[in-house]
């Protein structure tokens, strides 16, 4: 059937996608399984239980036995596990693979040839800058006790008090710091794809510092560090709100502030190298196993559940995106399949450790289908030039995944929720967490961009944009013809 010959199909498709997204958001407990449950405020070296006062009629020997038993239990709980440590070393490396070369190649292929080096540079330098800031104050402000929005910026600043013997659960705390640094790095680097090809390099760096400090750090504490949403009972196993909605909304706001590329809507601004993007998506999928399964912070059954869910949801999303393209355009594209893979990975991120395998397939399929609309119909409705569709894939996919987490975590649907799990209650909590993330991020991003505009300005000159940022900003060219 030639769908293109059916009058009004685009309007009906856009309407259907919008209705689906609204229905998901309004869907009908609270399971306090916050994202990376095992990564809550780290436990440092075990403190042996203090002496237990024996009852008046207990013998001294019985009291000594009780104390020894408690000390042994505390020591066992804090013992380093070599299997967990090996897995977390691997997971950290896998997440780093997602950034460079994964994300860099994915974005690099989507821009024009005259801007590819600028995007590669922005991804690498922004990620590196954030990792350094994470060790200075980010880790401390997220994973120490504080208030509902921030931990202490000073308690573990510059990794103070963390040594080679210090443990976070069953792994070295230094390893936990490294693992979490890659999350902060990729989240901030994701944003640059939204305003690629026209923003000043120094503006990107200043904005990244401000946004990391006042959007990523508090959101990570709010969800994973025992803050407001953690107390509320929001489920975000590996970063649906903290990473994807956060970065997606920032990209949308950033694209509005920086403005459209010259010629946008008038001439075709095509990706210069789809194979780059395809390879980048493949590397992202491989690295995402560290992202999702690594968030269990252990080599255990939860990691295995997150692992298989990452396979299934991504595959379902590829099938969903490809099917929609085949029906609506007549021809499925390689770029669409690669984008579908990323959409599925985004959608399953908050749910991977709490939903069952069949639930993961539904989440992935929904994310793939809805994100097609996110980068087509919704993008036109918003009238925004989001170069790499950061909001359409990460923002929309994150919203779909976060809300459906509240549905498929239910044990009746194969999830790991408690026996008294309430879908209606949890979905409402998930909706609140999504709304809170959107509002917080939008406000912080707008303020950060305004400050950056005052200090450096945001956009390169028209001449520089026409010449290309590779030469104008970096003095080099990717392709010498």
Automatic annotation (TrEMBL):
Boundaries of every Ammonium transporter AmtB-like domain copy: 86-479
Topology of the protein relative to the lipid bilayer: Multi-pass membrane protein
UniProt GO molecular function: ammonium channel activity
Transmembrane segments: 86-107, 119-137, 174-196, 203-225, 237-259, 271-291, 303-322, 334-351, 357-378, 390-408, 428-451
Annotated GO CC locations: plasma membrane
Signal peptide: 1-35
Keywords: Ammonia transport, Membrane, Signal, Transmembrane, Transmembrane helix, Transport
InterPro entries noted in UniProt: Ammonium/urea_transptr, Ammonium_transpt, Ammonium_transpt_CS, NH4_transpt_AmtB-like_dom, RhesusRHD
Main location: membrane
A UniProt-annotated Pfam family: Ammonium_transp
Compartment list: Cell membrane; Membrane
Protein family: Belongs to the ammonia transporter channel (TC 1.A.11.2) family.
Name of the protein: Ammonium transporter
Organism ancestry: Bacteria, Pseudomonadati, Pseudomonadota, Gammaproteobacteria, Lysobacterales
